[in-house]
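hey so i finally got around to running the thing on that chain from the lab meeting. sorry it took forever, my laptop kept dying and i had to restart like 3 times. anyway pasting the input first so we r on the same page abt which one it is
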Amino acid sequence: MLKIKEAIVVEGRYDKNALSQVVDAVILETSGFSVFKDSEKVSLLRRLAGQRGLIVLTDSDGAGFVIRNFLKGAIPPEQVKHAYIPDVYGKERRKRAPGKEGKLGVEGMRPEVLRQALLRAGATVEGEDASPPRGALTAADLFALGLTGAPDAAARRATLLQRLDLPAHLSSKALLVVLNALYTPQELARLLDGTGEKNSPEGG
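ok and heres what got predicted. didnt touch it at all, straight out
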């Protein structure tokens, strides 16, 4: 499995599922065209692009290129790499009929095809012993910080998301992924201190 520094953006959850079998990386979804009106998600993608770089991996059909071109205009070009899958005709097993153009999307590509697409795009592959560019936050860290498992956890998460300019609708699971991409545990603890958040009894 490739360990990739850059965050990768795909169109939907089935694409994300397929890609997660190939790479160890932060993977986000545009949720199709909804990203066009989702300023919070665009802001998050810009932030990740600035901190670790972004790889755009959309389907090879017209819709995929509309999304790709939107992201090209929304994020500084020097922070974005573009990975392309080949035109392969057919349909994904879960679908009853092929897509409008009859092409397989990211979810229908063989793992090796996805791997090569990312390598050709110039993805930064990290060695097995390389330290991650950000932290190693776990679900236990969120619990220790009072962001999960406490009566006021939802309110604390909402406050944190607002203070860090992150999308308000992030689930606790998605929050963990994003925080890992942006902060180390120490950086997060300092941010919580600096913004007036109360530390947990565990000292988080």
